[in-house]
Amino acid sequence: MSDLGDIAGEDRRLAEAAAWRVRLTEIEAESTPEFETWLEEPGSDRAWARVTGPWNYLSEHANAPELVVARKAALGDAQRAGELSRIPRDWRRIARACAAMLVIAILAVGGAYWWQRPADYTTAFGERRVITLADGSRISLDSDSEVTVRYSRNARELALLRGQARFDVAHDVERPFSVLADGQKVIATGTAFNIDVTGARVVVTLIQGHVVVLNESAQERELPGPEAPSPRHHTVELAAGQQLAVTPDKPPAIAHANIQRVTAWTSGQLMFDNEPLADVVARVNRYSATPIMITDPKVAALRISGVFNTGDVSGFVDIVTRYLPVEAVTEDSGAIVLKTKA
User: Quick one: DSSP state of residue 2?
Assistant: First the structure.
């Protein structure tokens, strides 16, 4: 690939990577000894990653209208470039260089399309997964949860649609990292935080760094007139170790958090400290297709502490019925109902 050696620095590496992509596609090979040697050169692995990500995505979405337009425009540029060399001394070198420029032109437009594409990640009951994003940020996604990701050149925008997730954010002051969860928007540049959406309650816990939490939905709900603004209307700054809890019809509450307890789910445990049984059951239900139900407000208000393994419904029910004045009744549907002990 020395025929592209007149291009300097990072641009040269990118051109070489594009040329190698064309060459490997031509010979229908995943690698060659020469390619492996090139890949070991400084900067080559980074350039190769920049080319292969969009390339693989484009191969799956080749008929997208934006990419069809990009291919036609790039092909025209490549053809015009070829016409400038009417008597090339090395037509193979020129052809490969033009092909490489064609790849770069397509990736320039199509790569932006790939970079900004929304991605959706979900987990089933009892499943946890860790997603590493393009900038090195990580999402630890809890059981029965869903998050969408949309990256652009100027912003990193995510939405936690349900469940719970921990976000470890790569630092980038020029592209804020935001997560929208039930109207609460958490904004950061480089930090780690946990968001838990349980019913209508959103809990944001800052593990390290600094975040700002905005209420994105309050202004839409506020009406002109004597009505008081929504109690959820707020802009809150959190420091490491603080937790924001937002529920309907109550002012946002900030408290110090036990980070070990909040993040215990990432290692398959649930830790509770004198919490209402209704809240505990809602968390336990996230890990099993067999629901636990409470219909009696007195039972829901009972408090419990302890450490439980995620997904161990029978173990949880056994402990609850042993230490609290409740009994478990299994209905025909398979649901388990906790009732006051007779």
Answer: G
